[in-house]
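Re: beginner question about structure tokens

> Can someone show what the tokenized structure looks like for a real chain? I only ever see the sequence side.

Sure, here's an example I had lying around. Input first:
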Amino acid sequence: MLHSGGVTDPWSIPAQVARVEEISALGALEPDTVAPDLQSLLELAVQFCGVSSAAVNIVTEDSQHQIAVVGVEATVCTSAESMCAVVLDQPTLSVGNTVEDPRFATNPFVDGRRDELRFYASTPLISSRGVVIGRFCIFDTEPRTLTGDQEDALEVLAARGMDLLELRRRTRDLEASNARLSDFASQVGHDLSSPLAAMLLYLELAQEQPEVVAGSALHGMLSRTAAMTRRMGMQIEGILRSAHQEVPVDLQQVDLGDVVDFVLVDLAAAIAGSAAEVTRGDLPVLRADPEQVYSLMLNLVSNALKFTRPGVPAQVHVTAVLEAATPGDPEGADGVWVVDVTDEGRGVPEADRQRVFARYTRGHEQDTVGHGIGLATARGIAEAHGGTLTLHPRDTGTLMRLRLPA
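And the corresponding structure tokens:
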């Protein structure tokens, strides 16, 4: 068996264990949407090589499983019966007449007990970890010979089939990682909720003390701190909703201008510390969930402030226009508000423009940390309101466009 350590006996106990573990990690025996794509590769092999049948065979310690086939019915046989198991660890091979090859002459798929195959060719399915999990094979009931180009094509098609299985592994790993991150976000959110509630209670009690009421400056400071604490609580609730992929909406009349003003108050220290400039135009009153819209706008403005060009203070602009209703669209009968958050920053690389909206996904570069849960949450909020959130590159910077029903 081919493995990262070199060539070994494919039927030794360590080799069998490694193969079974790799088959499980790839999910190679689990039914899903990969099989039709594998079958398409087999159809190409059949046509190019001029044979009647082909199969992707996965070989475990005691069985061979045909996870995709062309020209025959998919079957499961024992490893002892399998032709692929005989040459499991071998490079690409082509057997023009199986009855003349001592490895296959008495095989049940050759001698008539299960079939009467006369031609067999195959190439190993080698995972990214160097483990052979089976073979990509073609066969026929008539003897024949493959050309060099046909053997090369067989190897290429097998490699693409392995890519499909590897893609499933990466997808499964990502889903598992997202599930762990979801659990972590949920736990952190719960852990922060209690001390934050206690902090808010103490702030409210402090506001009621006579000496604080008498000192207007101190009272105002505590009021602003309490308001920021409440909004922090909203952010934690947003994390919990994102962790569970739940975004319930409590629709109210919300002044988007007031929401952005709250955002600017909460980001005042960051704005002042970076010499940033944030402006807003006239913003509409919407039917929306006030807490969720606050979270959405905080994400968009804070991202615009964060991802600046070196040595260039952030310039962020929030504007809105009413887009007329589209004829025949009952859901947009009153039109759509288009809210733009633009910046003059360094923008988002083209390769990352869709990835930044994925849950818990970050850009490739070290300095893009922070593009993860925020934009995923923001898009989820927009969609829960019947709207959209999209990213549009500019000559300098980025435009985040929020569309919400009027």
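Each token stands for a local structural state, so reading them left to right follows the chain. Residues 148-207 form the longest helix (60 residues).
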